[in-house]
Amino acid sequence: MNVKDISTHCTRTEFVGTTVLDTIGLVISGIDDTLLQKMNIGTKYHALGLFSSRTGAAGQLTAIDDAVKATNTEILSIELPRDTKGWGGHGNYIVLGGNDISDVRHAVQLALELTEKYAGELYISESGHLEFAYSASAGPALQKAFHAEPGEAFGFMAGSPAAIGLVMADTAMKASSVKITSYMTPDMGTAHSNEVILSLSGDASAVKEAVLNARQIGLELLIAMGSYPEIPGTPYL
Amino acid sequence: MNVKDISTHCTRTEFVGTTVLDTIGLVISGIDDTLLQKMNIGTKYHALGLFSSRTGAAGQLTAIDDAVKATNTEILSIELPRDTKGWGGHGNYIVLGGNDISDVRHAVQLALELTEKYAGELYISESGHLEFAYSASAGPALQKAFHAEPGEAFGFMAGSPAAIGLVMADTAMKASSVKITSYMTPDMGTAHSNEVILSLSGDASAVKEAVLNARQIGLELLIAMGSYPEIPGTPYL
Amino acid sequence: MNVKDISTHCTRTEFVGTTVLDTIGLVISGIDDTLLQKMNIGTKYHALGLFSSRTGAAGQLTAIDDAVKATNTEILSIELPRDTKGWGGHGNYIVLGGNDISDVRHAVQLALELTEKYAGELYISESGHLEFAYSASAGPALQKAFHAEPGEAFGFMAGSPAAIGLVMADTAMKASSVKITSYMTPDMGTAHSNEVILSLSGDASAVKEAVLNARQIGLELLIAMGSYPEIPGTPYL
């Protein structure tokens, strides 16, 4: 077998597409029954959508959230591995289900497209990274992953090294009146990542204000560590 | 102290050797009693063999498995740290015991040699990695690590980003009649690695068929992410 | 927003400074109450000091230990994320508290300065890393993190790949009469790092002898893996 004989243009029916941050979207039209029983996702759906990145979590989950709301699909599992290709954070691994494989494929396709937008708020320097996300109306993925209030605006911030994340969280809480939906640290809720993570629900303007204030101080502190971040996407906030 | 005064040719009695994937083999002829009690490996053996890599798990475990079967030694512990030098998977750390230090040294030496073969099925691209292993007859290491059926053929597959691993697992299950012995995901059984892992027991031809089908689709999907993998070893399947 | 508009010279009151190993020191003078309740550090202090690195644990904790002893501050939490920027070990994330923000700021400033010394015993090669630390008199940080005996000399060693760490631990125990205060492996007490870690309490000369013997064999084994380590700090033992 010579791997160079394999084309980068994949023709498998399972393949949907790829996007930034080493993200791949796949579908399985009729998952093997024995395997499904091991997966701990119930046995309701045999048409599965898979979404998986080496780097980033909240951006992709915000994309998935919109994709699930727009299609006849359901979130079955969300896992955040310790990854980021050597950096201090997470990747993601998400399984969707649907009765119709074309719905599932559409959801995965939509999530890939939206990831280009929602993963825009990622800042990676020589020393650490920051991640932000915002949704005007949280759906089932953000609820499952971060206990977001359904239908309310949702904000997310993660900072690494972890101390930067806590100052961002404190700044966000003082910036406006919002509700904490999840708080995570290396030993609390993360896969031992080097991050403090805060997510928020509330009114759109309050949540956005909190996230923007957190982003400003987070960037100032990260840059104080001696190098400017690369921005693999396009910031949207 | 000047580290450059230390030779790369190690003369310590503890040193056995090194091999691919930042693997080192060591022995301790009479482990300290107080330390042994902390190790949670029982107190039967004071002659210990140590085997440890930055990258890879199943290949080295298959090598250890053959080495233990060929010598008068026993597997005492298997741990899979979250490592792979910045990639999304595991390394390994294995402790063997024996009554005779020469048996233990022989086992470690054998495992180092066999790792060059069994760690051949590792594929690492810019985006992710795939690992495969196969043994015609599983022994105590593969049983302890992956619940392999002793004496039966054993197959292993891991894919990262994790979504690729699940499609490989589904493909393997549909390719032939085999039994799942372990199924792992970022939050289930791994050290939060960005992988889905499946291991199988069964007839030799069925297991090999399952692994080869998984390898083919795994490579197609990994390459679809945009770059060809490097192959640090020599594929043997 | 253009990140290049942000200066590397941070003027935020939260910023204290940075040092080697991607370490940042920060303070929060009046932590948000709602956030404080999520932090699991009690509610006694609203003036918090934060200390956080991508790489290293024991060196920074030894620095924090001295800083807390020298100031009117208290250790509130110590977390060791799985990090080291792609290598097999930990970073750190530490929260201090005090009644007076100037005490807390002084403690963080002191810890930053001492980290340059105490993080000197870090050796990072192409294959793995070693970390050592020594304190003549352990205080509350080393007690909280590694169960050090307060007031006694304290020694620490970590080796990666993990097998090297166990041989260092065995060598240390045979070198002198010391007491094990913590023993950690990938599955026992670490964030799934690829290390065996041992920490010791005892008489100053015995602890130092144990650590120096461990360092010698650790370096010989690491270098036997084929490359000389870089030493990001200045060794002090």
UniProtKB/TrEMBL annotation, chains A, B, C:
It is found in: Bacterial microcompartment. Residues 10-125 form the BMC circularly permuted domain. It comes from the Bacteria. The keyword tRNA processing does not apply. Its main location: other. SUPFAM superfamilies: CcmK-like (SSF143414). It comes from Blautia caecimuris. InterPro entries: BMC_CP, BMC_dom, CcmK-like_sf, EutL_PduB, PduB. Keywords: Bacterial microcompartment. This is Microcompartment protein PduB. PROSITE patterns: BMC_CP.
